[in-house]
């Protein structure tokens, strides 16, 4: 079980640090393809993502942590879109756009609001995919409210390829 988000305010140090880290990561990802375009000798197949060696549920946790943080800061919409582009497959992004037009809500969170916290746990793997369970916390107090999402990741690319309840 991995828990990255605390119940600090949206502008807490952890949220700001994670947002800055995600911005820096996306900046590096944008520069790397230009540097890699120089002719090179053929190599063995390399992973599509540099962090593909980490467990898929950690990739899901990194995405949800950065995505929720981006939504909670003023002007974070561009960062949220960049995170979607980096972590989600093109097919899933298309599905989410369709779902969002129909439901008038955020397809990644399956809600109109931003949760206070989240937790990601690993699940089963098979047929080139692995599934993670994401618990979103919507209220504090003695009886908090949760919703659960099942997130599918592609084992080859490490990208998130499905989000559902």
Describe this structure in words.
By secondary structure, this protein is of the alpha+beta class. Helices cover about 40% and strands about 20% of the residues. It contains four helices and four strands; from the N terminus they run ααααββββ. The chain has helices at about 15-35, 55-70, 75-85, 90-105, and strands at about 115-125, 130-135, 145-155, 160-165. It has a four-stranded antiparallel β-sheet with strand order 1-2-3-4. Helix 1 (about 15-35) crosses helix 2, helix 1 (about 15-35) crosses helix 3 (about 75-85) and helix 2 (about 55-70) runs antiparallel to helix 3. The longest helix has 23 residues, at about 15-35. It starts with 12 loop residues before the first helix and ends with a strand.
Strand arrangement, major sheet: 1-2-3-4
Strand portion: 15-25%
Output mean pLDDT: 79
The biggest beta sheet reads: 4 strands, antiparallel
Coarse morphology: globular
Secondary-structure class: alpha+beta
Count every helix, treating DSSP H or I runs of 4 or more residues as helices: 4
The radius of gyration computed from the alpha-carbon positions, rounded to a whole number of angstroms, is 16 Å
- Total strands: 4
Order of helices and strands: HHHHEEEE
State the main characteristics:
four-stranded antiparallel sheet, 4 helices, about 40% helix
How would you briefly describe this protein structure?
By secondary structure, this protein is α+β, with helices and mostly antiparallel strands. The chain is 39% helix and 20% strand. The chain has a 4-stranded antiparallel β-sheet with strand order 1-2-3-4.
């Amino acid at each position: 079980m991995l828990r990255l988000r605390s119940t600090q305010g949206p502008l807490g140090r952890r949220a700001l640090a994670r947002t800055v880290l995600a911005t820096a990561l996306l900046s590096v990802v944008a520069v790397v393809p230009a540097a890699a375009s120089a002719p090179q000798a053929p190599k063995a197949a390399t992973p599509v993502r540099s962090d593909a060696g980490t467990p898929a549920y950690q990739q899901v946790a990194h995405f949800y942590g950065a995505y929720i943080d981006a939504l909670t800061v003023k002007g974070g919409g561009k960062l949220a879109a960049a995170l979607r582009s980096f972590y989600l497959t093109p097919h899933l992004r298309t599905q989410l756009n369709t779902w969002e037009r129909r439901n008038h809500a955020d397809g990644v969170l399956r809600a109109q609001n931003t949760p206070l916290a989240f937790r990601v746990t690993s699940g089963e793997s098979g047929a080139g995919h692995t599934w993670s369970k994401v618990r979103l916390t919507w209220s504090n107090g003695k009886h908090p409210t949760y919703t659960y999402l099942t997130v599918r990741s592609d084992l080859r690319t490490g990208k998130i390829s499905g989000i559902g309840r």
